[in-house]
Amino acid sequence: MAKVTIYTRMMCPYCTRAVSLLKKKGVDFEEIDAGMDAAKKQEMIKRSNGGATFPQIFIGNEHIGGCDDMMALESKGALDVMLG
Hints:
Layout (H helix, E strand, L loop, with lengths): L3 E5 L4 H12 L4 E5 L4 H10 L8 E4 L2 E4 L1 H10 L1 H6 L1
Parallel strand pairs: 1-2
Antiparallel strand pairs: 1-3, 3-4
Helix pairs in contact: 1-3
Pfam families: Glutaredoxin
Family: Belongs to the glutaredoxin family.
Protein name: Glutaredoxin
């Protein structure tokens, strides 16, 4: 299964929704709380080529975007393929 990394911040409903989907699917993931950590937020922005909103989600080294992007992949049946 591909490594999943998700940059989140506290009190973010989109982050909660994305994390819930990953948990429901039984996916192991690394959650990085970048909301109050300027260095982690800069890392997220650089890694995502400018994505400054939360969450930012990566499957392997591929940036898939935010919560809505992940939900769109899920509704098309493409998320499971990407996860392996």
